[in-house]
Each structure stands twice: as C-alpha cells, then as structure tokens.
Please model this.
Amino acid sequence: MKIQSRIKPEDGKVRNITVFGETYAFTLDAQGRCVAEVFDEDAIECLLSHDDLYREVPTRASRVMDVAEDEEAVPRRATKKRAPETAKDEPEAPQEPVADVPAAEPVASTLEGQ
Model:
C-alpha cells in the first residue's frame, strides 16, 4: 500500500521512518507528495493510526470507483418528458432600407487665428 507522509523531508529528497524494525524511505513522487510503499500490515496500521501525519494514497482505480459510488448515492431528479422539437424554417424579417444620411460638415479648429 502506498502511504503519504504529511511531513515533507527536511533535505527535500527522502524521509526515513522506522516502524517495527523496518525502515521505509518516503520520497517525493511526480505530484510532489512524500510517499512510500508499505507492505507490512502492522506497519500500515501503525502509520495510518496517526492520521494527522500519514494517509493512504488512493490508487487511480479506487478513485474512479469512489466517484462512481458517489454518483450512485446522489438522488437523481426526474426529468420531464418534452415533446420533440422540429426544425422550422422561419421567414426572414423584411429589412428596412437605410435612409441617406448627409455627410458631416468639417469643424473649424478653435485655435485658428490666434
């Protein structure tokens, strides 16, 4: 079982922990978590009993299963049956012709003649 130490190694590389005479090297994984593979059931139980310091690292498959179980637990709302919609060609709205707008007169500068 992969276990994560919530305490980062002081040297930034490895944190060695001895449990029941066996030393486990907690190293940083690709996600930056300090993890070690622990196979001894007693060591696993001992480490996880300190939930403020260690936790189990979920495997990808178990995360998928957890999500699937959560979705089953969420009650689904009943959806209303709607009549199927059909595409309709709507006539284009007639467009009004644009009226001719006279061109604007040039504005004389107020600074001229000063």
